[in-house]
Amino acid sequence: MARIRLAVKKDGALQFLSHLDFARAVRYVIIRANLPICYSEGFNPHMKLSFASALGVGVSADIEYLDMELAEKIPVSDVMERMNEMSPQGFAVLDGRYVDPKAPKLMAIANYAVYTLRGPLKEDLSQDGLNAILQRFNEAPSVPYEKVSHKGKHRVRTIEVKNHVIDAIHGHVKDGDVYLTAGIYQTSEGAIKPIQVWEVLEKDFGLPVHADMMLARRTGIFVRKDDGKTASLFEGYDER
Amino acid sequence: MSHPVEIDPILLSKVSKPARYVGGEWNSVVKDHDRVKLTVAYCFPDVYEVAMSHLGLRILYALLNERPDVAAERVYAPWPDMEDLMRTKGYPLFSLETKTPVRDFDMVGFTLQYEMSFTNILNMLDLAGMPIFSKDRGDDMPLVAAGGPCAYNAEPLADYIDIFFLGESEESTQLLADTIIAWKEGGKPGGKKGLLKELAKQPGNYVPSFYDAEYDEEGNFKALVPTEPEAKAEIEKCVVADVEHVFFPTKPIVPNIDIVHNRAVLELFRGCSRGCRFCQAGMLYRPIREKTPEQLVKLAKDIVANSGYDEISLMSLSSADYSCLPELVDQLLEAFKGQKVSVSLPSLRVDSFSVDIAKKVQQVRKSGLTFAPEAGTQRLRDVINKGVTEEDLLSACENAFQNGWSTVKLYFMMGLPTETDEDLAGIADLAYKVLNLYRSVTHKNNGKVTVSVSSFVPKSHTSFQWFGQLPIEEIERKQQYIKGLIRDKHISYHYHDAKTGRLEATFARGDRRMGKVLYEAWKLGCKFDGWTEMFDYDRWMKAFELAGIDPDYYAARNRSLDEALPWDHLTSGAAKNYLKQEWRRAERAELTHDCRRLSCTGCGVCPNLGVSIIDRKAGDAHGKNTFSC
Ligand code: SF4
């Protein structure tokens, strides 16, 4: 049995899929590619396939990682080629390598994601104006975000945005849209969603956008070490 | 030059399930319109998840796209939130493949699967920026066509649709495409009307504007009179004689989001000759024509390899009637051994044999089994010619319970001709018998019986087409009556909204004047009427009032056997006299046997259309076209 790790993308027609739908679409690609994928035991066998993250509806990704277990170690280039031939618009396998079957799950190691957020401006905003807003955010020692949960009782939970957005946010204005680049760090308490960062910037820092009009594209996902350095999810888990 | 509709993804991300509107699915076909001679937009008047689950349109889509000179694309009804976005921003209705506005296609074809989708057709035409009435659409507008079961009673849509296609279109669609291409290349002689005249000569094609409807002094429908020489007095359905070799798509479009039936589909056979007297499909799709198991296994392998689906559904009107079903199931299980592909049967026959098959394909008894005895007493089952006995049902259930199933669903109808309260009590009685059987077989008390009762809608082209639907109050009384008889918490009882059934009945036996009601209803905002949360009966009643039409005239009136019917000119090949004879036999509770097993019962389809029954097992004992497998 061999464990292969692939870097893939999710965009175009697939950007509007929920994580469950995306995972199903990938399963179909794997079956069409006729790969010797392993299944779990039991009455309801599941494909041995796992992802680094659960990308939400509307979130596209230049890069996402997945692990799958194959019964037979076929060359990485073959896996890539066979899957790419069978991929719907919006999906592609970009890179891959076999990893140690005992390596920790992708979900457990991927803890830092970088996004580009785009949304239309409500009013004119100069680059200087944008910089000033972002500077205030970047320099604020604490930015609380109140998350209202609708499940069960109406509960409010406060998230400290600064625990998750640990690098400065940059941005620019183009054709009436504002583009921001933000990294989101996942702690033991979880993470914050890109749309929530956007909302905070609109509500508390006066970014002239609509709180609910934004699309996020994830440009990278990494392992962020304690020293602040980031590493690719391919690094350090090579087969022995 | 047509410009694609571009919707800002940020706006799109605001509607529910935006993936419904973006296309890009595996096996969808995108062509350059400048490189083809004909463009066709296939429209299904319901939302993506429902539309994509429908086999008929998938067949035609793949069939036309096989041709290098044709581009066929899909268009589905936008959900109201998307419609709002489109109307506010001025986006016209567009196709999923190239996002081309619908009004820029050569032909726009609607599929008519159920009456409750008719308002969506009007709404889609309007969203496309096209006039709703045929007469208002000039030569610059696409040809608007429609086919599917509801085309057999086309009259309520006669003012909106340019041409209807009756029957199975795999072969006629090629001729249609050739005709339109030749007409375009010939400089469109005679304009759209010239094309319609040409098409009216071809089998299965009905051009409603070439006929006038006549009514007598009392306002009863009298006749449909042809006004053009090309208009035939009777339009007969198209039928595919050789089902074994007819085109079947092996590269199904694989949706990116989950849909109602998200699996590969294998069509075992066409038609059904059991002869249930309430069933329209049973009359429309005769005769029975089966594919061979070898052909089916070959198709199944291709479909799975090309789609990635891990489930294959064996679809047909009554799949358990496939003559080589055990062989087929064995061969499929063998073919997909080790591949985690499961086989499913959408409907079971009420007998122990079906349960044996279900046992084989459903290794885990996760879902319950469904049976449809349709009526509660033997007498009424004989009236409707449902050749099923209580013994059949109980032996099927016994087999199921012995083999680990604990849930059984039973489907019934109410409001059938000659029905009395005794027949309804029979429904409750059967449910109890099944539950007690579970207890005695398993000595457990965790069995579950679900009883689902729909209200009967008399349909055109059936032997019950003369029977008037019962008043809503009476249906509701019957629903409560059954409810009062079911008191065990292991039996759950469901019934359908009587009002939806009422509306369906008005269209199912309506004439051209129903078109006005449809228009008023659409103007009042009716759409997605098949969706409980969208259906507004009061609004519909307002529409009837505005149109000056009494719904009961169509739904509730018993019609006399000799009155002219608004669908007499559209025929499935079965003789009206046969239906009359069946109606009389129903009144006497006399059974009519299945013509594939014994002698021909004389419906007329085979001689009229020059086709014959193809049964892969029956041998050639009775002079019909049969083969053995
Ligand atoms: S013509 Fe005879 S054999 Fe053919 S479908 Fe009708 S009843 Fe059956």
Describe the structure.
The complex is a heterodimer of chains A (240) and B (629). Chain A has 240 residues and is of the alpha+beta class. In chain A, 24% of the residues lie in helices and 33% in strands. Chain A folds into two domains: 2-109, Alpha-Beta Plaits (2-Layer Sandwich), CATH 3.30.70; 112-224, Alpha-Beta Plaits, CATH 3.30.70. In chain A, a hairpin with a 5-residue loop joins strand 6 (144-149) and strand 7 (155-160). Chain A is elongated and about 55 Å long. The mean pLDDT of chain A is 93. By secondary structure, chain B is an alpha/beta fold. Chain B folds into two domains: 9-236, Rossmann fold (3-Layer(aba) Sandwich), CATH 3.40.50.280; 271-294 and 314-337 and 344-615, no CATH class. Chain B has 21 helices and 19 strands. Chain B has helices spanning 9-12, 48-51, 55-65, 80-89, 118-127, 172-185, 191-200, 280-284, 293-307, 325-335, 352-361, 378-383, 390-402, 421-442, 472-485, 498-508, 514-523, 537-547, 551-555, 576-587, 605-609, and strands spanning 38-44, 70-76, 107-111, 143-147, 163-165, 205-206, 211-215, 221-226, 235-236, 264-267, 269-270, 289-290, 311-315, 342-344, 369-374, 407-414, 448-455, 491-495, 570-571. Chain B is globular, with a radius of gyration of 24 Å. Chain B starts with 8 loop residues before the first helix and ends in a 20-residue tail after the last helix. Classes of the chains: A alpha+beta (240), B alpha/beta (629). The interface between A and B is medium-sized, with 35 and 27 residues. The structure holds iron/sulfur cluster (SF4).
